[in-house]
Amino acid sequence: MLNPRALGAAANTESGSRLFRYEVVGLRQNAETDKTSYPIRRSGSTFITVPYDRMNEAMQRITRMGGRIINIQPVDGSNGRNGNVSIEQKSSAVTLETGQSATIPGKESKPMTQAKAKADIPVNIYRPNAPFVAKVISNEPLVREDGIGICQHVKFDLSGSDLRYLEGQSIGVIPPGIDKNGKPEKLRLYSIASTRHGDDLNDSTVSLCVRQLEYKHPETGETVYGVCSTHICNLQPGDEVKVTGPTGKEMLLPEDEDTTIIMLATGTGIAPFRAFLWRMFKDGERSQNPDYQFKGLAWLVFGVPKTPNILYKQELEEMQAKYPDNFRLTYAISREQQNPEGGRMYIQHRVAEHAEEMWEKMQSPKTHTYMCGLKGMEDGIDEALSAVAAKNGVDWKEFQRAMKKAGRWHVETY
Question: In whole angstroms, what is the distance from residue 15 CA to residue 310 CA?
């Protein structure tokens, strides 16, 4: 919790007692900021006075609470007004949590402006040796009758934590118990399936889309269930869970509202794309993000074994119906649809079917392609796109590397 009284307390050294006034925007009204001794403004700026030796800590806490520092000025400690300070101030750097640095003003007392929020990517706010203990709010089945396997949408309460995240990131879950070597179970990472505001749009929840891992032991033939996925799928409201994170910068959305976003997903690989699509198209989410009103094209190609396994089917189809010019939805249902050769329809066959159109869109620097799901999908998709690239006299691997270098090719498979 950011306590401005503590931050403004006298330090033990002359340099440490110098005060700086932060102009902050974007602090969210929530349980944590309710505890602060200053008002959180719905618009305009909040001003916080900070001693020099607490500047780095203050920056970190402000960003954790959703705030953005737009200006820093020195304060005359004797009267609380902006102005020149009486001691020499050499320009130095303060490292932000994001890894960027901002320069403290010198004698001329020029204001300092923080780097744009684009670089403010939260990472590892909670670590395995100091996780946050979240509580389960709900655990709902996603696979409908006659579907295959178990997959759950699990919502966790983050109230009282500093944990914040962006669409496309992951969190870790540490299951209870010990592993086969007698050591505590290690964390498993899961893609976040909710926007930064959470399913309830109150900035205090995070949701996961988790499938229970189930496979046959190659030697004994015995059915084996995943430790952590089974634990999560069986959680009940009120249960406590150790979470870490967030992690990941690979799958983040571009800030540009007018882009083409191609999303290729299998199974629970839908998780980050659900977060993307909620941010783009859900009414409540759009109202919270006046600076991001998606105007481009989002195209989801989603591979599942059967129709009852189309995760978030109702949500997806409602968004498509409401935004037909901005959201395109293509299914590959392997056990119900046939590919041109008469076999099962997998996601790579849908990509091959639309390869010419996808290739054309990929020529634009405003097109981003994302792939999430089973690792086995990569080779088939590469093959489909290699064929269309070759028809256009381009080596696909070289083109793919160029897209990756430009930050337009994003892959998270497992």
Answer: 60
Instruction: Let me know if 346 is a catalytic residue.
Output: no
Q: How many CB atoms lie within 10 A of CB 1?
A: 14
- pLDDT of 328 strictly over 80: yes
The answer to whether residues 275 and 370 touch, using CB atoms and an 8 Å cutoff, is no
> Is residue 372 flagged as an active site residue?
yes
Residues composing the chain: 414
**pLDDT for position 347:** 97
Q: Return contacts of 84-92, CB within 8 angstroms, 24+ apart.
A: 84/109, 85/18, 85/109, 87/14, 87/15, 87/18, 89/18
209 is catalytic: no
Tens digits of per-residue pLDDT, 21-68?
Answer: 777 777 765 555 545 554 554 445 677 887 766 776 777 677 777 777
Candidates 21, 62, 70; CA nearest to 44 is 70
Catalytic residue check, 167: no
Q: Which amino acid is at 180?
A: K
Instruction: Name the active-site residue from 161, 170, 191, 204.
Output: 191
Q: What is the pLDDT of residue 83?
A: 35
CATH code at 132-247: 2.40.30.10
- Annotated catalytic, 412? yes
Q: Find the catalytic residue in 22, 126, 165, 190.
A: 190
Domain spans, the chain? 4-117, 132-247, 260-413
Confidence class of residue 19 from pLDDT cuts 50, 70 and 90? confident
pLDDT of residue 93: 29
Q: Which CATH number does 260-413 carry?
A: 3.40.50.80
| Mean pLDDT, the chain, whole residue set | 83
308 CB-near residues (< 8 Å, 6+ apart): 143, 144, 145, 146, 147, 148
